Amino acid sequence: MTDLLANRRLSYTQQSVTEGSKVQEERRRQILQAAVKAFARKGYHACRVSDIAKEAGVAYGLVYHYYRSKETLLEAIFRETWGAMLATIQSVEQLDEPAGEQVRKVTEIVLRTWKRDPELVRVLVREVTRSSQVQQETDEIDLAYQALQRIVERGQRTGEFREDVDARLTATIWYGALEEILTGWAFGQLPDSEQDVTRAEWAVVEIVAGGLAAANKAAAPA
User: Fold this and answer.
1) Which of 93, 161, 193, 198 is the right S-S partner for 155, CB 3.0 to 4.6 Å?
2) Facing residues of 213 across strands?
3) What pTM was computed for the model?
4) Which domains does the chain have, with CATH numbers?
5) How far is 124 from 131, CA to CA, in rounded Å?
6) Element holding 66 (H helix, E strand)
7) How far apart are alpha carbons 55 and 63 in whole angstroms?
């Protein structure tokens, strides 16, 4: 009987810990999403922690319970977004599809982020990429270049892409095109209707995959 009661108490304790952890994770996510909205609306530097608390509908002090500072919140936005993007690109890499199709899918996923979550893109472009703290995370940023480079190299190994073009440089150009298009939309410098987004996707794929096509091989510079 004693053992049975002890086991029940342990079970209740474990359940309470699990439920408590779930609540904490939901609250942390709630605050992070509120920070994205507040940063997008007011700008990172003008935004106060009280603005984030108000957006989240929580007490001012609760924000500090989960995040030490406004800077920590911005870094968390970068890490979570970057991690999700890398995971998505890696899932595309694992598909048994031609490299050209992988270029198309990655390009579509990244650019369609603007339609799915424009506030997040605004924060990433206006605040995160210009943050000195985040810019120090060079290893994590380099993982994105490496993922794109692997797709290019895969196409070169299978003969789909020409081998005379440097894969690392191609990945840098591809990444730069995606970043600049998102930046243009975030700052209102480029039109962003549904048709415009589709045209942007087509242009990037045509330049990257089309330019790499083995049939387009040209003489390399000396």
Assistant:
1) 161
2) 161
3) 0.81
4) 1-67 (1.10.10.60), 70-217 (1.10.357.10)
5) 10
6) helix 60-66
7) 11
